[in-house]
Amino acid sequence: MPDTLSTIDTPAAIVSLPRMRRNIARMQQRADALGVRFRPHVKTTKCAEVVAAQRAAGATGITVSTLKEADQFFAQGVTDILYAVGMAPHRLAHALELRQRGCALQILTDSVPSALAIVEYGRAHAHAFEVLIEVDTDGHRSGIRPGEDALLDVGRTLHQGGMRLAGVLTHAGSSYELADPVALAALAEQERAGCVLAAQRLRAAGLPCEIVSVGSTPTALEASSLQGVTELRAGVYVFFDLVMRNVGVCAPEDLALSVLTTVIGHQAEKGWAIVDAGWMAMSRDRGTAKQSHDYGYGQVCTVDGEPLDGWLLTGANQEHGIVSCPGAPSVNIVGRFPVGCRLRIWPNHACATGAQFSAYEALEEDGSVQAWPRFHGW
Length: 378
Hints:
By secondary structure, the protein is α/β, with parallel strands linked by helices.
């Protein structure tokens, strides 16, 4: 007999396949409507079956956050891969090995010292790496501001050094801090305009810049135009999570990832049910704590995935979670959630929760589940 939610061991990472498929279709349709290619970021799932579904829907190439992901997906037949983390010199040997085996790997830099390291290694091995320059369009993390002189300095270093200057890339990560559609649309335009400006400056200086790559899940879903952009990237959209729910780009019925857990005990006088999903299952991510609605360590749902209003995973130790309803009147916690009862918990951050598991349990509409392996490590 096939496994079901009542027969698999807990805790388990459950992926609702109907929801996941709708999410994939929604983002692909968005990219198509905006007239750009879609290159999904696979760091959220690190799962071959999920990426196969994204590619079947129309995605072209993938984005990775580790070279191990590049190894794994190249072995699965994906050749068009963007490694969207600043290139550390000690990883150039690994990148070269992938390229020499036929992987069309693109790498990333945002400084002259990093660009020089790429040039020196490429020259020493008679190889022209394909490199994008990271552009900072929102002050969130890394990258060169679109108007900085350093942008042209890096471009010249790569181009004159014999590397292939492929284009520019940006990620408006500060979109996760917003919750208003108007503000998200404005940031999406800021992201687009800044990256396009960087590309225009490179071209005006006589430097090549074919690719203009932008994206985050919120800005991708709120952008009104991507004029001048060639490709869109997004990752967490495939599952969504409670942070994205607070940002306002998904509804509860879009949340495709949950953690299945079992009630293993009670602290009745405190109104607590104790479950076997602690932070080792949910992660320590408390990304909703600074948002409009704090979900603790996750929103508690029935085993069928219906949210239980007010019930949260309010505490988490390594292997123990605490389910309670803050501020609610006293309830018969033992009667409501008896030992052996199964619940599902929506996570704050799908990427962090997924990383706690070696496999997803893919849940079909008929209630059957099958294990989908997930890549780990660096």
